From TrEMBL:
Keywords: Cell membrane, Lipoprotein, Membrane, Palmitate, Signal
The protein's name: Carbohydrate ABC transporter substrate-binding protein
Superkingdom of this protein's organism: Bacteria
A Pfam family assignment: SBP_bac_1
Amino acid sequence: MSTRWKVSMALILASALAASGCSQRPEKPAAQPSNSSGKETKSTNSNAKKTLSVMLNIADQPVQDVYRQIINDFIKENPDIGVNIQFPGSAYENNMKVKMAANDLPDIFDTHGWAQVRYGEYLADLKGEPWVNQMTDTIKNVVTDKNGKVYVLPISEAKDGIMYNVDMLKQYNIEPPQTFDELVGAADKIKKESGGKTTPFFFSGIDESTIGTYFGYFANALLINPANNSAEELLKNTFDWNKWTTLPDKLLDIKNRGLINEDFLTAKRSDLPTVFAAEKVAFALLAPSFVDAVHKLKPEMKVGLMPIPAMSANDKPSFSGGERSTMGIWKESKNIPEAKKLMSYFAKPDNLSKIANVTKLQPGLKGIESKHDLTEYYDKYANVKVLPYFDRVYLPNGMWSVMSKSGTELLAGRITAKEYSETMKREVERLRKN
């Protein structure tokens, strides 16, 4: 571990537990966190000889309940092993930073998108586990390094795209757009033919990640494609940030066309399910859990999922994705055999199916059956490429917040598209030095 990292960890040790953690990309933005977030649930009996500590980054009560049920079933079959599980909610990242600083981690923990970069040196190698050969092609390289070390069990992987009102697109004879220009054209048509009732896109200046998601999605489409691949320049920090200006320019164009909600500065992310269910919004740049929030308001509404449209007519749509929920084992755990046993239990097809059905996410292992509102779309787009989350691969830690906040400043008219790109360049250089 570098000296700079150790010093940084030590500085936060005293204060991080009092601070609120902030996930770069909230897993379940529309759902309410569990009332028991942060409290420990003990599953054990008097015969337990070893007790595992488990800490996971899961906010939704229904998902937590499924995890607890799987653990209870495990305890019944393995009465000599107890399990203490925690769901700290929004405090997860800060809690983990404190534990890393103290070098005192849970036996099993969730890497929430950072298996190699942030947590890699703390994790045991799982390459010998029986489920390794079942990893999907899209997640394998994300959780495996060039030397073959497998960092985590990928419980679920993200295939993030654009959620849309299926019946509305049919009503206006619109096929899911393949390119960005087609997406804007579809939005124009919906706005016009609905008589202004529907403003196709929704952003929140209060919950700025809604704006950051736009940049994350379309940065891949613009910069990581066969015709114009800037991956090497981004990784080597030689990227010409003038190329970035296309993204804020296009967002301003959408705004100027009247295609985003007028109250974007005061709207809350939690407002989106309501306005979507009321057919005031057609497209949502959100994770799949959004569907449940809509169905609580309008059960009959059909919500679809489509890949992110390409920026060029010469490219194809793609999903944005990577790790979502994982389980890794602390390499210094005194209970590694027991931890691997619990992990293998979670990897059973029946258990991964239960998790997939409640999260509406793709399992990280092959051959797992699931049936939920988005299954037909995952099947339909099974062969569509999945590009890793742009910021996790090409930007230093901390840039998600910069992208999001600068996007709000842009829409508010406080900076220009060129100034947005200049901010990106400046902040990337600053954060790479840290």
